[in-house]
From TrEMBL:
GO biological process: autophagy; endosomal transport; regulation of autophagosome maturation; vacuolar transport
Sequence ranges assigned to domain FPL in this UniProt record: 1-142
Keyword annotations of the record: Autophagy
Top-level taxon of origin: Eukaryota
Record's protein name: FPL domain-containing protein
GO cellular component terms listed in the entry, alphabetical order: Golgi apparatus; late endosome
Length: 253
């Protein structure tokens, strides 16, 4: 298929006329082994990654084929399935532009309107670091698309909850690390500390994209839930100490 696209349009026309994309996706919905499903995801990934003709890519993404694949139930207890699936979502997000975003909206009834974002967000706290990194990349790629429908989707309460979960994830990491330090258990402190830093830098990247509804919500959650409830208690003694020193200096003068 990829070779044929470079040689003649007839290869791709045959691919479309015979609705081969739908046939490929139908296999993954059948009661097949995880190895076969992984191979299908890999095949479609290779196809999308190597197609050079923009029109051909549009045809691949059209007719809700991609959303159909994204929303197909898979065995996420299998690490290989998760790894390949998230890599596939990351690849799709890298093809998100104002021109292609229309293909990622799910127009079927009673369905999530933007499954690429909603499904990837479920893996935000996955134990595998590479999965979390991919989720952060997908999130940022979605937010960067200058599209009014994306902004509208992001402003929905159900979507904004994801950003609240991100803040609470950081809080849970801080609490966990603090408990480890207090119990003199330092084996995973470095790992958790790095994760906290990565998550905070990610939240900074989200804010830097300047999506108003997301920024307003995220700032509010950060101040109320993270800084006020957890950070202020830590820095308050130091602040009080500074105030006392200033008072002593003023009296001595």
């Amino acid at each position: 298929m990829i070779h044929g696209e470079k040689k003649s349009d007839s290869y791709f026309e045959f691919f479309l006329e015979e609705n081969i994309m739908q046939d490929i996706i139908s296999i993954i919905k059948q009661n097949r082994s995880n190895k076969i499903k992984i191979q299908i995801i890999q095949t479609i990934s290779i196809l999308i990654q190597n197609i050079k003709n923009r029109t051909s890519l549009f045809f691949i993404l059209s007719n809700n084929h991609i959303n159909d694949l994204i929303t197909t139930p898979l065995d996420f207890l299998d690490e290989d399935v998760v790894s390949q699936y998230i890599s596939f979502l990351k690849l799709l997000s890298m093809n998100l532009t104002p021109d292609t975003v229309q293909f990622f909206y799910n127009y079927t009834k009673s369905a999530d309107s933007f499954p690429l974002f909603s499904i990837c967000s479920k893996f935000y706290d996955h134990p595998e670091p590479m999965v979390r990194i991919a989720v952060r990349t997908i999130t940022l790629n979605c937010l960067k698309v200058n599209d009014k429908n994306i902004v509208k989707y992001m402003s929905q309460p159900s979507t904004l909850k994801y950003f609240k979960k991100l803040v609470y994830y950081v809080i849970s990491l801080v609490v966990t690390m603090n408990s480890m330090v207090e119990s003199n258990s330092f084996a995973r402190v470095g790992e958790i500390s790095n994760n906290i830093i990565d998550q905070l830098l990610f939240l900074q990247d989200v804010l830097n994209i300047q999506v108003p509804c997301v920024n307003d919500y995220l700032k509010d959650v950060l101040v109320k839930e993270f800084f006020t409830r957890y950070c202020y208690e830590v820095i308050q003694p130091d602040c009080n100490m500074v105030k006392m020193k200033k008072r002593k200096l003023s009296r001595s003068r």
